Amino acid sequence: MRVVSGIQPTGKPHLGNYLGAIVNYVKLQDEAHAAGGECFIFLADLHAISQPHDPAELTRNTREMVATLVACGVDPAKTVLFNQAQVPAHAELQWLLNGTARMGWLNRMTQWKDKAGKNREGQSVALFTYPVLQAADVLLYQATHVPVGEDQKQHLELARDIAQKFNNDFCTDDAPLFTLPEPYIPPAAARIMSLRDGTAKMSKSDPSDMSRISLTDDADTIIKKVKKAKTDPEPLPDNEKELEGRAEAQNLVGIYAAIAGKSVERVLGEFGGQGFGAFKPALGQLLVDTLAPINARFLELKDDQEALDAILARGASQAREAGRDTLDATYRALGLVR
Ligand code: AQP
Question: Is the pLDDT assigned to residue 187 strictly greater than 90?
Fold first, then answer.
């Protein structure tokens, strides 16, 4: 079992990152550790430069993201925790896979279409080739399990296509080079939506801070954001079917269910017939209770720059070692003389 996943240090991680991905990093880290497998979690700083950014902010966010992941339960003793920039093999393998990835495949990526919008010509090349770097990230370590939110499913499928084509083109049938990675997507809460718009994904780059709950928000901020979350005037129904078409209500109930570890039906069994005046304070309190220990641990860790850098340096050294054989084999398979 090889677990591999990444998160961009592009801002404060939010509830969507937590429920969609980080909770599963911790779960799979523990499963892999118990089964004698390995877990690699990286900060996708090379991905972060695909969009306009402030270098000083990227450095600060990178350290804060390490502190947040550790505060959430990612354990550097069980997980190889590192940033891509310290492991050049990610960028090297991306270049080698650029020969296999097809323009048409990348053109179909919905994240590219969403992020580029109408201004494709003005985007960085890195934003377009982002999914090839993502393929390199997981193929480098022969990942078997890749915990991601629903929005990354298409990129994982692309990574499988690239691996498959490379194996077909450059390897014999009995000795494929790359393992085809499987996405590990949570059955519930795989897509947490913005608190201001139930049709848009909760995102670090949304200009409105009120659209997301950050993992480092304090109790007052969480309560305020939930109170101001967009809803509709109807009371909650007592069954899931009647939530359909009510995107904001669906999102808030889904968040409650995921955090409480209950089904949506069960949550509606408790709150059906009640309005948001009763539901929102209960949701706010549940979030505060869940996030308070993470917040407290984050505050303890975040200013110890030396300790955070040491975690990354140690993880990077382990990652460089772990990826070496696959990178060497890729050069060889392509006939490159080194
Ligand atoms: N809203 C979400 N619901 C569920 N899962 C989510 N993820 C992100 N948003 C949601 C999952 O979090 C992991 C890390 O994502 P990322 O930071 O690398 O990139 P992203 O998907 O582009 O996240 P953001 O917050 O939207 O960042 P920006 O605004 O910087 O682009 C991934 O597994 C993702 O699925």
Answer: no
Give 267 Cα–ligand 1 centroid separation in angstroms.
26
For domain 2-190+304-333, give the fold.
Answer: Rossmann fold (3.40.50)
Q: Which two tokens stand for residue 257?
A: 């269910």
What pLDDT is stored for residue 237 in this prediction? 96
How wide is the angle at C-alpha 57 spanned by C-alphas 196 and 95, nearest 5°? 95
Q: Whose CA is nearest to atom 33 of ligand 1?
A: 148
Contact criterion met (CB below 8 Å) for 327 and 140: yes
Checking if the pLDDT of 319 tops 90, the result is: yes
Cα of 178 vs centre of ligand 1, distance in Å, is: 26
Per-residue pLDDT tens over the stretch 219-249: 999 999 999 999 999 999 999 999 999 999 9
Residues serving a catalytic function are 115, 201, 204
Ligand 1 atom closest to 151 (CA): 35
Which amino acid is residue 62, in one-letter code?
Answer: T
What's the token pair of residue 81?
């925790």
Statement: residue 321 has pLDDT above 80 = yes
pLDDT value of residue 66: 97
What spacing in Å lies between the alpha carbon of 147 and ligand 1's midpoint? 12
Q: Are 7 and 69 in contact (CB under 8 A)?
A: yes
Average pLDDT, the chain: 96
108: pLDDT strictly greater than 80:
yes
Estimate the crossing angle of helix 125-139 against helix 153-170, to 10 degrees: 70
Cα(169) to ligand 1 centroid in Å equals: 33
Confidence of residue 113 (pLDDT cuts 50, 70, 90): very high
Counting from 1 in the atom list of ligand 1, the atom nearest the Cα of 193 is 1
- Pocket around ligand 1: residues whose beta carbon is below 6 Å from it? 7-8, 10, 16-17, 20-21, 44, 148-149, 151-152, 190-192, 201-205
| Ligand 1 atom closest to the CA of 48, numbered from 1 | 30
Q: Where are the domains of the chain?
A: 2-190+304-333, 209-300
Top-level CATH class of 209-300?
Answer: mainly alpha
170: tokens are: 């450059």
